[in-house]
Prior knowledge:
The chain has 2 domains: 3-223, P-loop containing nucleotide triphosphate hydrolases (Rossmann fold), CATH 3.40.50; 231-386, CATH 2.40.50.140. Helices cover 25% and strands 33% of the residues. It has 10 helices and 20 strands. Strands 6-7-8-3-9-10 form a 6-stranded mixed beta sheet, with helices on both faces. It has a 5-stranded antiparallel beta sheet with strand order 13-12-11-14-20. Strands 15-19-16-17-18 form a 5-stranded antiparallel beta sheet, with no helix packed on it. Helix 2 packs across helix 3 and helix 2 runs parallel beside helix 4. The protein is elongated. Residues 349-353 and 396-405 have low confidence and may be disordered.
Amino acid sequence: MDVRYEKIRKTFGGLDAVTDLDLHVPDGSFLALLGPSGCGKTTALRILAGLEEPTSGRVFIGPRDVTDLQPKDRDVAMVFQSYALYPHKNVAENIAYPLRVRKVAKEQRTARAAEVARMLDIDALLDRTPRQLSGGQRQRVALARAIVREPQAFLMDEPLSNLDAKLRGQMRAEIRSLQREYKTTTLYVTHDQVEAMTMGDRIAVLRKGVLQQLGTPEELYEAPANLFVAEFLGSPPMNIVRATVTRSAAGPQLVVGSQRLQLAEGALDAFPALAGGDATPVALGLRPECLQDSATADPRWPRLVADVDVVEKVPPEKLVHLRLDAEAVVTEATLEIAQDTDEAAADELRQLGKGAALQARLPGSSTVREGTRAEFAIAPTALHFFDLASGEAIGSGRSLAGAAR
């Protein structure tokens, strides 16, 4: 069944946790709800499950308006971060419990629990209790308990966050494989962009309870709607610096700090909002992989000169930390993202004035060295522009209101 949120709003103590959420999840698809801590993604999931009541708006599962239904009447299965297994029941009893609630005959529920356990490779654990299981085994039991119900939708709230990195990778693949096999509509809450990018057919990015962008992983990565999405998706994140778009007889130019980068005529045709004016200030976005070693890049591409602070070897690549005499763009969203992961990094950003730190992802064969000044080529098709005032992406039909502030 498909799932729809229509103008959902949820308020706690006068503060909006979710604001006017309109979201459609097609039947059989896998949607990742992504965002930093406190962005409203878990609240949105709990509203769908019936564990939270919306302040306003409606929720639909298929044709049914389930807004006022009890959780047990919604026909959804939820997998929690904490597994939520019954400690006094063994694995078989935990898996079969939803069928017992539905008053399915004991013989049938035992057979069905054993069948699902075999699928998840935990059939040898049916007699054990949760305390006798590892974290990965407990997670499989929680998944089996959800699957055995054959619900209309799976709801998963950070189900892998308690697992180590290796097991998370394995479980990601298993969950995605199971979802494809069962073709059950799935909503998956995570703050981990790797989980969202590798698992979701589509990703909904939330910030402060507001939906920022909905699209495929490729769409969000290649065409972020605003600075928040641009900086939240990508590891390392997109480089953002203040720049000015100008015109010359030879074509458009980008002024970045003390440098002028000549662009080919027509390079900004995809950005008609930048066509007017002789000097338009913008936030320039560059993905780390789009800053290339000038020794091997297309000689027609514009060059950016930067100081090389650190070169990290991350076989088969090198991650190069650069510094420019350009002004860093530090937005409220930038600080929010940094604070969610590293309070020290957020403090450093607050103090940042002149001098923008960038990162470039280069092949391991690159000869760029620490402590030098080096040239980096920029693929003209890899440029992203954002309004400095609103943070919105600049593209066809987008306005530049307040960009000069």
